[in-house]
Design brief:
Blueprint lengths: L2 H4 L4 H16 L14 H14 L4 E8 L12 E7 L3 E3 L5 E6 L4 E12 L12 H5 L2 E13 L9 H6 L7 E6 L8 E8 L2 E9 H18 L9 E3 L7 E2 L5 E6 L3 E9 L10
Parallel strand pairs: 1-10, 3-7, 4-13
Antiparallel strand pairs: 1-2, 5-6, 5-10, 5-11, 6-7, 8-9, 8-12, 12-13
Amino acid sequence: MSSAVLHGAPAGAEMIAEQFVRARLAGQSLPQYPGALPTTLAEAYRCQEFAIERFPDRIVGWKVARIGAAFAQQFPEERLVGPVFERNLHTARVGQVVEFPVIEGGFGAVEAEIVLCVDEDAPADKKSWSIDEAAEMVRSFHLGVETAVSPLATLNDLGPGAVISDFGNNWGVIVGASIGEWRSIDEIVALTFIEDGFVGRGTAFIRQGALGALAFALSKCAERGRPLRAGDFISTGAITGVHDIRAGQHSRLVFEGCGEVECRAVRAGPYLSRAAL
């Protein structure tokens, strides 16, 4: 943990982190936000840092999401990041339906995304990355899904401060088929279905979207003293939107001309890291 990140952290940040971590480990929902909402990026990321330190699993990647225009003045960065833990990183094979946990009474959603794998450790002292520099860090390019899950049903409604404080509202990434010639692709159209019902369509712009998200993650994580490492997976942002899903429901995410990913939400139980299995 970077001492600079946690220096001066409000006492409430530790309490917020403790309650979110306890709820996630138990697979239980929270009735309300557990403390005073973070009002700045610094406060929100302090909560996240405390939570990371308390969580008994290894970080294997990061989710990236945009900060909406309504919050741009209060949280003046284009995007936000949250950790992806090893137990919740899934690989989707052709024809396989990947199961992922959702917390009953909490927030649960699927997001069609481009997922990038980092090729080498990022220099710890490099704090600013361009899109072109980020592109040189890509080992592989994948279709994928972010499983956005929180113990708090209203987390997204409370804004980026709340979202950042609870791992960026992330509870896993599903890594689908790789696209070998990704540099020749400008955009990918994606569609999302839940229980065979169409719920969203959107376009992923590879340079400004996926590679822009990777550049942000490289810069932000280095700023926090957590530079990206070889093999990290970066989920680069929702393409078709954020689509609510409940335990037992099936989702199919189609990437036109590239492939698809299928997944099913299941009720979360107590969390066990891979080392404990």
